[in-house]
């Protein structure tokens, strides 16, 4: 019998940062009343007793509340970073020191370390995977087929991850259920739009301290994240241009009052570029060539692939860090392009991610999706499942209650009318 290797209990920057992390986690929790109620129920019911769980997430104060909820629910949980620049090191330290949750995440970790942490997480032999971009699930399928038998299912909360899961299902390699947290109404309507909108501009401002009023901001992609960024940029006085590949979304952007054009044209006009597409090389060599001197580019979509930094680096005669999370690439013609956050998620690289009030609903969805998988173990066929409507409605009702907002309910007469075909108009 081969002995199981002893796993390092954590890999973080500095455990002495824990007291600061605890303060910040508690501050964020003040605005997360829905998840707080779920934490309290989980602590009583222990729905994850005996369940090994891996969470690949941005290690932030908000994620900490989710991790704590899962631990209180009985989960044997491990947390890794989903992005090399998104980890808040004090939060990672607190989760290890105060909550005994193994964390493998360091802000600024290189790709080799990131992939090692993915492998470490899979060494945990998870029954449930909470994923962000489907990297852990993809690695499991490609490299650890023998562990799929242990898996009850996975949850995914990003558009990119859902696209990848759909491709896995089409190719016949998704042999277990996956919960589509991203498309829950209480996730994408709020997290993607209001969370990404505010936190992206927060990251840009923290990295640069520039005035957005009067600037031309180019938003690549008009999904829910792009809508949020465009809306908030306009609110700060920017002249917003939207680029799109989807004709319906392009019409929507135009009717929302934004200029719409191809990136090749927008590249000549923009002062600040924000990619929120989930695809690769949305801004590339031919765009850099025609940009204004000093144009700024950043990403709030997926990983560091949306901006083709390899081609920019190959063109540059000099790369210089001019501020934290701000690098100036000088081109042979004397012009410069400024890259924010190394092309990674600017809202997490230079700021603190989404406000906790909006993540309250997103992580409530994650927690309840995990519980749903456990409750329905063995009953769900391989595939991608939306969050049940009743859970979505429950989260919304809890959030309204916490906000002190009441709404109407149908009368018996109205209920009969709206659900019957026999009652005439």
From TrEMBL:
GO biological process: L-homocysteine biosynthetic process; one-carbon metabolic process; S-adenosylmethionine cycle
Keywords: Cytoplasm, Hydrolase, NAD, One-carbon metabolism
EC numbers for this chain: 3.13.2.1
Pfam families: AdoHcyase, AdoHcyase_NAD
Coiled-coil regions listed in the entry: none
Cofactor (UniProt): NAD(+)
Annotated signal sequence range: none
Catalysed conversion reaction: S-adenosyl-L-homocysteine + H2O = L-homocysteine + adenosine
Main location: cytoplasm
Stretches assigned to the S-adenosyl-L-homocysteine hydrolase NAD binding domain: 192-353
Top-rank lineage group of the source organism: Bacteria
Gene Ontology molecular function, alphabetical: adenosylhomocysteinase activity
Binding site for substrate: 60, 132, 157, 187, 191
Task of the protein: May play a key role in the regulation of the intracellular concentration of adenosylhomocysteine.
Family: Belongs to the adenosylhomocysteinase family.
Protein name per Swiss-Prot or TrEMBL: Adenosylhomocysteinase
Organism of this sequence: Rippkaea orientalis (strain PCC 8801 / RF-1) (Cyanothece sp. (strain PCC 8801))
């Amino acid at each position: 019998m081969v002995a199981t290797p002893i796993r390092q209990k954590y890999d973080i920057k500095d455990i002495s940062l824990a007291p600061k992390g605890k303060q910040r986690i508690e501050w964020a929790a003040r605005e997360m009343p829905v998840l707080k109620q779920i934490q309290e129920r989980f602590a009583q019911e222990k729905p994850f007793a005996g369940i090994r769980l891996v969470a690949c997430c941005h290690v932030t104060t908000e994620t900490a509340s989710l991790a704590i909820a899962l631990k209180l629910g009985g989960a044997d949980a491990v947390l890794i970073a989903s992005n090399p620049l998104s980890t808040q090191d004090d939060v990672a330290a607190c989760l290890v020191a105060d909550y005994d949750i193994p964390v493998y995440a360091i802000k600024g970790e290189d790709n080799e370390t990131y992939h090692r942490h993915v492998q470490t997480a899979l060494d945990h032999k998870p029954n449930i995977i909470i994923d962000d971009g489907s990297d852990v699930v993809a690695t499991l399928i490609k490299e650890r087929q023998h562990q799929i038998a242990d898996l009850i299912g996975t949850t995914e909360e990003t558009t990119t991850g859902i696209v990848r899961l759909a491709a896995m299902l089409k190719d016949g390699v998704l042999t277990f259920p996956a919960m589509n947290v991203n498309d829950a109404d209480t996730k994408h309507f709020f997290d993607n739009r209001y969370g990404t909108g505010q936190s992206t501009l927060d990251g840009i401002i923290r990295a640069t301290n520039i005035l957005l009023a009067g600037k031309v901001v180019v938003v690549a992609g008009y999904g829910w994240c792009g809508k949020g960024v465009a809306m908030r940029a306009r609110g700060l006085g920017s002249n917003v241009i939207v680029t799109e590949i989807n004709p319906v979304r392009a019409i929507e952007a135009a009717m929302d009052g934004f200029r719409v054009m191809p990136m090749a044209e927008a590249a000549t006009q923009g002062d600040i570029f924000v990619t929120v597409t989930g695809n690769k090389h949305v801004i590339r060599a031919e765009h850099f060539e025609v940009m204004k001197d000093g144009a700024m580019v950043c990403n709030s979509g997926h990983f560091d692939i949306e901006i083709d930094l390899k081609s920019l680096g190959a063109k540059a005669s000099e790369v210089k860090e001019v501020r934290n999370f701000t690098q100036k690439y000088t081109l042979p013609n004397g012009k410069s392009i400024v890259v924010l956050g190394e092309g990674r998620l600017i809202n997490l690289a230079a700021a603190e991610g989404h406000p906790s009030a909006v993540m309250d609903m997103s992580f409530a969805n994650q927690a309840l999706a995990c519980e749903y998988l456990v409750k329905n173990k063995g009953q769900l066929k391989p595939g991608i499942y939306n969050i049940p409507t009743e859970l979505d409605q429950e989260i919304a009702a809890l959030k309204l209650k916490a906000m002190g907002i009441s709404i109407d309910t149908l009368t018996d007469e109205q209920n009969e009318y709206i659900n019957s075909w026999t009652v005439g108009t």
